[in-house]
């Protein structure tokens, strides 16, 4: 799965606003198929934003030292 770059959060929010505006326009014009497709896209964008928020909350604040691996037979 592709992860959204946290630096692109504002862009993702802008995309969601744009999709919402387009849904309203499609409803006003009676384009029901278009409404459904745009709703699917908007929901996917909202899910990405929620994932981005969740990753930001759960992200470790400091790096973890894992040490050097020891390979048997190597000196």
Portion of residues in beta strands equals under 5%
Radius of gyration: 21 Å
**Overall residue-averaged pLDDT value:** 89
Q: What is the number of strand segments?
A: 0
Distance between the termini: 39 Å
Tally of contiguous helical segments: 2
Structural class: mainly alpha
Most strands sheet: none
Q: In one word, what is the shape?
A: elongated
Order of helices and strands: HH
Low-pLDDT parts are none
Helix content: 55-70%
How would you describe the overall organization of this protein?
This protein has helices at about 10-30, 30-60. The chain is mostly helical. It has a domain at about 10-55. The longest helix is centred in the middle third of the chain and has 27 residues, at about 30-60. The model has no long low-confidence stretch (mean pLDDT about 90).
Which properties best describe this structure?
single chain, 75 residues, mainly alpha, 0% strand, elongated
Detail the topology: elements first, then pairings.
Elements lengths: L8 H21 L2 H27 L17
Helix pairs in contact: 1-2
Short synopsis of the structure:
With 75 residues, the protein is mainly alpha-helical. It contains two helices and no strands. Helices cover 64% and strands 0% of the residues.
